[in-house]
Specification:
The complex is a heterodimer. Chain A is α/β, with parallel strands linked by helices. Chain A is built from 11 helices and 14 strands. Chain A has a 6-stranded mixed β-sheet with strand order 6-7-8-3-9-10, sandwiched between helices. A 4-stranded antiparallel β-sheet of chain A has the order 2-1-4-5, with helices on one face. By secondary structure, chain B is of the alpha+beta class. The chains are: A alpha/beta, B alpha+beta. The interface between A and B is medium-sized, with 35 and 34 residues.
Amino acid sequence: MIKLENVTKKFGDFSALDNVDLMIPKGTSFGLLGSNGAGKSTILRLLSGIYRQTSGNVLIDGENVFDNTEIKKRVFFINDETVQFGTFTLKGLKNYYKGFYPNFSEEIFEELRNTVKLPEDKRIDRFSKGMKRQSVVITGLASGADFLLLDEAFDGLDPTMRIIVKRMLVDAMLDRNLTTVISSHNLKEINEVCDSVALVHQGKVVFNRDLDSVKGNIHKVQAAFAGDKNYEKADFEKYGILHYSRSQSIHYIIMKGSEEEIREKLAEKDPIVLDLIPLSLEEIFIYEMEGLGYDAGQLD
Amino acid sequence: MTQDSSIKTNEAKNNAKKSAGNFFSKAMIHNGIMGFKHNFKQAVVLFVLHMAAAPLTISMLMASILTKGEEDVEGYMAIAVLTTGAAALAGILCALSAMPYLYKKSVVDMRLSLPMTTLQRFVSDFVSGLCVYVLPFMAASVFSLLLTLVGHIACDGKTFYRGYGSNPGWECHIFEEYAPLLIKGIIGGILLMIMFYTLTLLISCCCGSVFECVCYTLLANGLIPGSIAMAVYALLNDVYGLVPESYLAMTIPYTSPIGGCIGLVFALQSGFEAAVSNAGVPTSITYGKWLLIFGLVTVIYIICTYLIYRKRNAEDTGNPIVYSALFHVIMTLGTACIVYAFMVENEYIAPMIIITAIIYFVFSVIRRRGFKKFWRSAVSYICTMLVCLGSYAVVVGTGAFGAGSYVPNASAVSAVYLDYAGTYASSLDVEFSGFDMSFDNVPLKITDRDALEIITDVHRMTVNRNGKRDRTSKNFEIMYRLKSGRLVVREYSLTDEAILKLSEIDMMRETKEFRAYLVKAAADNLYYLPASLDVINDSENSITLAPQWRIFDDSGSRVHEVSSIRINLLPSDFKQRLGESLYADIIDETEADYFSDPHGIMQLTYGTDNGRTYYNRRTIYIRSYYTRTLEYLRGCGFKTELQYSKTFGLAAADNANITMVSDMIVENMTGKEVTSFTPLSSTAGSFYADGFANSFDLYEYTRLCEKYGLTEDLYTVLANSYKRYKTDESCYTIIVNGNAAVIDPRYNEAAERLFIVMTVQQFIDNMTNNETWPNYGTADNRTSRYKAFLSSFLTCYGREKIDSVAAPGVSVYDLIFSYANGNEKKGLGIYTSRGILADKYTSGSNGYSYDYSDTKSYGYGYWEDYPIDEEFNYPNSFGYMQISIP
């Protein structure tokens, strides 16, 4: 299990993470959502032992990660760059990581390589962006690590290859209880792969829940009220709305809460029409961020 | 303890415990191997560079030996220097390639996420990079050793000769000398490379970009030795008695790669010379000491590098400077280097401030990538300057914290080393012109308690005198080895009282043995007899016995007898027997022998004696009381009674640079014993006593004797002058071509005639030809010394001995003294490029408080310029003077 306890990470005067608590159960696929600079990559680098936390504990199976070789042998971090592997061939990359990860499986590596059909003896810097990404992902999956940390892992992959890579991840999770932590702006991928997600904003975790719970706890409401009731945004703010807009007599409201809770709250307004529509993860992200003051309109 | 630090500490402890058991993990070794493989191409390039250095040069040396010098190796030497330099500089590349995550952001995640502890990663990366750097050198070194082995087989046990021109002077044996030297050099070279590599990593750990890594590494390498050198010179130069060089020798060779190179060369050289001369050379740098200290400093650098590496965070990569301390250290070193360079001369303060400020601010802008927080740079600069100038004030003000006046207690001294072979002796009694075997580097070692007491007393007398360092004169260096192992080196100008005191050790056992050893060593190395005699010509191939003065006439012929025998006609053990005889004679010499050698000396010479130019010549002086030696030489066929011809005096006047000194006019001299010894010449003596600094060692004037008909006098004087002589009578000293000798006082009359002629002629020349003033001291007291000299001169000889008729009515006496009587028209004049600068007396009775400078008033008189075109008519000019010889 991955656990962050009151973790703070400062870069000089800037706090990238501020007293973050996070728990990721073993065997889950966990998504990290957040705006640019929110602290997602910092969390991944703390988990992989690259960064040393300023305070708090970064624990994997109860042990601090930094400078802990036994734990680090069980963690494989794939960041959003591939340029560092440029001078390797795929075979060289395999041999390189094989020496560091005792559970590295050449069989899995070959199997995955055959699946994605990557040449073994060609230098990686001559690969396309997607092929480079595939190379690193199959190396990570073959490393035998228990925890795979992916930062923008699907960046550069074509749709077909995305499906293949996702399938590889899912298979590994099912086969050997692999825990994956994925940081991505591509919420569709997160939605498809992850069981749980955490939203990080300005160094703090806004929420950390399983994906179904997240989706079931926020709704888009389309409502119409009798003509003599000319409601405005202020009339709904006491319900903790995330977003409000109106088109003629139709009110569009994004609210947190279960369907029953929302219906109960709005019943007092005596709606003529009340429809609740589930939101996609992307919409949830956008509206949650808007609720935190991070919306495109504000940026204008 | 803060939460942050407690977490880090606990974390480090826990992880260290886990890692302690298996420090050399597979991952760590794998990381090192992969690092080496990754940078293998660099190693190949370095190997090629190293192979183009020592192995290539050794091959060419062998070719040179086998072809009897037809192959010129200098070109290969140049290639070797260039390629070795390039390979050495590649240490920066190797260090940066070993830890690219220090400056390249893209590899940080990949390298730091690998399952290794910080220490494991540091060790494996450090070692792999070092292997890339050092292994090619080691491989090339193995080739070098193998080649020398081949050279041994091919060159009959000798790898090369060290000689001069076609004259091979010395053979170098592979297993005894060359191979050990090479192995020492290789080990030293490896250590130098490790320090350079470590220093680069140390700097790189403090930087986050390639530019800063390279730039600050180069700066650090130059500034560490540079600032030490400048600081030592500036801080200690003004502290009387301290020898900056001794402090440099204690610091520079051990603290930086460049200094280490110098130290290694000195260390190898000292061991090398010790091997040749079989003498213990107490230099402050010996190979073992250098290896130990340099190695320890390197280890300290490695530890510091690791500590900084461990503290450094992954996110620091990309910042130009990670630890601002680096910037401040480098800038302080750089500023100190410039400030102290200026402080050595104690002038140009404004340029110093401007230059340091410009450099400081340029680097500040580069560091901050702009002008933000520029005021901080100004504050830093002021603080740096205050540190530099404050340290100077403190060190000089406290006499280097009392070090300048420190005199060790004799009981605390285990040995003293002096560059000294006796007060009344020339330092070595040997002269190796053109072939210096560095005997000067072998000092006298004194352990005798009585002698140590005398030396510390001499030291104390000198310190108590609280003198001012006179860097223009030859100083006396004392090197103490204390019982604690500490080396204390001091340098002073000795007073004549101190010299007298020091002379008490002259006849002590160690001093005599040292003199005897030096002369015997000189005999052992008098000549080299090559296997094939045809490599040297006949003129160089003889041993010649000659009188002490070797004078040649205009045609280049000798004007004295010589006795010469070809080397191959001498006994095969000539050098050995000669050395043994000399050794025994010196050991047996009595005080009377030592302090007086009335029968003079002869010189036994090997090498070309080409008229006035001595080329590749080696000489041993044979004293008249060296009975065993003289007997042995006679047994070998040498004639030991050698005479000068009557043309000797004229030839000397024509061709020799002659200076005469009279102890009757020397100021501040006390005791006739001192005045009669002969250490004035730089080649003949050890000291430059303060008393002599005030003397009038009159300048060369070659045709005086002929002009004034004194060749007979010169013959007499030269034939009766001695390099060692002690007398209670006043006498003269003559210096011929730099060699000083005391004139037997029985011939004072002839000497006096010569002296007066030369003295007055010099006075006239100085006045009329604007000659450079002789050694009167500094510019500000030339005139007063000149006055003092002439006053003494006239006191001794009377005004009647010299007379001037050039300017009517003006006698020398009047010229000198009449200015004090208020007679403006008869003032003292000094010639300048603008005319006669004459003292124009105005009032008062003590009008000689003047200065030798341009027109201005001083005291009671002032100087005015007068044109010289009417020198015969102008009442204040000298014109020239005629001398009437009594």
